[in-house]
Amino acid sequence: MTVESYRFDAFLFEPGDRRLLKGGSPVDLNARYLDALALLVREQGRMVPKDRFMAEVWHGVPVTDEALTQCIRTLRRLLGDDATRPTFIETVPKHGYRFIAAVETAVAPSTSPAAAPRIHDILLTGGAGTAGAALAGAIGGLLYGLVAAAQPSATGGNALSVLLVLLALTTTLAAVGGAGVSFGIATAHYARTRRDMWTIAGGAAGGFMVGAIAKLIGLDAFSLLLGQSPGDFTGAAEGALLGGTVGIALWAARRGAPWPFARRTALAALVGAAGGATISLLGGRLFGGSLALLERRFPGSRLDLDAIGALFGERGIGTAGELATAMLEAALFAACIAGAMIAAEKN
After folding, report:
1. Which end of the chain is more exposed for a tag (fewer CB within 10 A), N or C?
2. Closest by alpha carbon to 275, among 327, 325, 223?
3. What are φ and ψ of residue 304, in 5° steps?
């Protein structure tokens, strides 16, 4: 197996390892723009029409000409190029762009150190997504914990214990689920073709596996310890849908590369909220719905989230409450994972 790299001016470009170096130091370049640079460099000296960028960089996803213009503008800035007197990327008015710098191509045998950056990137982005999921779980746990702790049934030390238990539980579950989704996405990101599709599929597969295992162990644990099952709480189907939603959210956030980080994260949250609503409307449950199920199944517990249902005129968490909590949870989950992985990809 061989690894191909390109050297031009002070830059070393290694498409296989997904990196651009200047004087040995990495240049901050997101995945979409790196693909555009790879296309230009491979076609060095030849004009690359706009439709090829749309087909091979955006994979047929409809985008405006401004997205391509912003991409080329960013590449020029990172390369230190000037559009009026180009030394790297020349504009062919109304048609496309041409890479005009002299390029040296090197082909060398692949070794384990050369493969290390890819494994490193998978660990980095997957780990970042896991940390983001844990943050989402902590925020959700704090919200649920404060609601439960404020109820009349939780007073004094009981209120604090309820808050801490819910906080620890949601953070742990979110981190475990987020690890499956994030590493599924991170691994799929390095597919050679249709990377966006595999990002969604990887998130769904990771969510499916974690959801299936968690439900199996959870049902067995309740049956073993309490002699009865709590019922149909979150499992493989919800995990797959939520994981796929995160994959779509990350794809959407990456597509908005020219936007500020906060705006891209907000877009991921909107996609997540839509996914959460879909899960709820299809009869699935996320964490809030599962807590409501446990509260109904074990009425003698100190778990009391009736205040959430009261916001919607319901006794306990009903249909509207489950829909609202599912949207909130999925929005947090998608935004925190997508935001963390995008931040990691810049490093």
Report:
1. N
2. 327
3. -145, 105
Phi-psi domain of 45 (left: phi exceeds 0; alpha: psi -120 through 50; beta: other): left
- Residue by residue, pLDDT tens for the chain (347 residues) are 444 789 998 899 988 888 899 887 888 888 899 999 999 999 989 999 999 999 999 887 888 889 999 999 999 999 999 999 999 999 999 899 999 999 888 764 444 444 444 677 788 889 999 999 999 989 988 998 888 777 766 555 577 887 888 888 889 888 888 898 999 888 876 665 566 787 888 888 888 887 776 555 555 544 554 455 555 656 678 888 988 999 898 888 877 656 788 888 999 999 999 999 998 898 888 877 777 777 777 666 667 777 887 888 887 778 888 899 889 999 999 999 999 988 887 65
Are the CB atoms for 163 and 201 separated by under 8 Å?
no
Question: CA 241, 55, 264, 119: dihedral to nearest 10 degrees?
Answer: 70
Tokens 């191909």 found at: 4
Are 6 and 105 spatial neighbours (Cβ–Cβ below 8 Å)? yes
User: How far apart are alpha carbons 208 and 84 in whole angstroms?
Assistant: 52
* Bridge partner residues of 4 (DSSP): 107
Helix axes 236-255, 319-345, angle to 10 degrees: 50
Residues ≥6 apart with Cβ < 8 Å to 295: 301, 303, 304, 305, 316, 317
CA dist 296 and 190 (Å) reads 45
Residue corresponding to tokens 């987020």: 178
Domains of the chain: 2-109 (1.10.10.10), 116-345 (no CATH)
Tokens of 86: 């180009």
